[in-house]
Amino acid sequence: MQPNYKNLIVWQKSMELVLEVYLLTENYPRSELYGLVSQSRRCGVSMPSNIAEGRRRGSDKEFYHFLSIAFGSGAGLETQIEIAKKLPLGKNLNFTKVDSLLEEVMKILSVLLINR
Fold it and tell me: CB 116: neighbour CB atoms within 10 A?
């Protein structure tokens, strides 16, 4: 049987992050639907997707390769969140949950990648 990814804390936390990104971006203006909304959601979805794909591939080398991709997507999401905060659209939004989960997931990924 292929290794299970659903029991990985990093996958579980990144799934929570995706849900929070979706909830947050629901509050962005419609004009950002094809900009920050789409890009932020794609980066968010990419994180647990790559963790799952890498885990299912079965080899440590591929798993760490896909963790690296997830880490890169997290950096992209961090950047998009920072852009949103600096724009007028972010003035009245609460980024606390997304910031906290993103920081946690990035720390876990960083530790996994360093300790391989």
Answer: 11
Residues 6 or more apart whose CB falls under 8 angstroms from that of 110 comprise: 71
2 lies in a domain?
no
How far is Cα 57 from Cα 19, in angstroms, rounded to an integer? 25
**Segment 45-69, tens digit of pLDDT:** 999 999 999 999 989 999 999 999 9
Nearby residues of 64 by Cβ (< 8 Å), 6 or more positions away: 54, 112, 113, 116
Across residues 58-87, what is the average pLDDT?
96
Tell me how many domains the chain contains.
1
Note the pTM of the prediction, 2 decimals: 0.94
CATH of the domain at 100: 1.20.1440.60
Query: Residue 3 falls within a domain, yes or no?
Result: no
Question: What's the half-sphere exposure (Cβ side, CA atoms, 13 Å) at 75?
Answer: 8
Q: Is 115 left (phi over 0), alpha (psi -120 to 50) or beta?
A: alpha
Q: For residues 26-30, give the mean pLDDT.
A: 96
